[in-house]
């Protein structure tokens, strides 16, 4: 079921509305309104194949013998202040801050996992398309961290890695099939935000999510792929700005400015997460 033609009650804030929809609808049926048109834009801009994306989703579905329940994700995220952590250049400067917050839910883009492990910061959820540091993914894959693993046409050869993950849930950017879901988003970083929004986070606070022309040192981007990487980051930022028009409030960034996200300093965190 795609939620089209539905408007939230006017007296509901974003987290209350998302929570209402989670309660009233089957979690697996929910794809954010308007996503299909955004996906078509991505296909056209990058020359991707929907058929290849579907093939990858079906393969991941066949590999995943067990999948983390959506209610488990809901329990971790719903009505909470969630830290979304990316691998942008500003990640290095916020690691010591992140170490001070032990109980806040942390959803992490896979390229940032290595930095967090090196600083003894535990991710609750890792969002990955398996192009991050493989050793780090294998390490967290043995823990109770949930790896939300994305299938697309370019990572079919890597999907077997999920066999090493203790807690895994599969996603796609095209039609949901079997055990594979579509919560929205394109890059690992913006998919973290879409995931947090989907499961009703009260506040979403970005760290290391710069979306600029400088690629962070923890990114595994080859020099030959730099132009495409920057293009993907630009698209990811646009998607977050689009999401902000739907959610309206509860969006913050400690990184570079993003339209619809309130820019904050680290000293304001305590007040927001109370």
Average pLDDT score: 90
Number of strands: 9
Helical segment tally? 10
- Quaternary organisation of the protein chains: single chain
Order of helices and strands: HHHHEHEHEHEEEHEHEEH
First-residue to last-residue Cα separation: 35 Å
Beta-strand residue fraction? 5-15%
Helix content: 25-40%
Using the alpha-carbon principal axes, give the shape: globular
Helix-strand category: alpha/beta
- Number of individual domains: 1
Low-pLDDT windows of residues: 1-12, 14-25
Taking the sheet with the most strands, its summary is: 9 strands, parallel
**CA-based gyration radius:** 17 Å
Which strand order spans the largest sheet, edge to edge or round the barrel?
Answer: 6-5-4-3-2-1-7-8-9
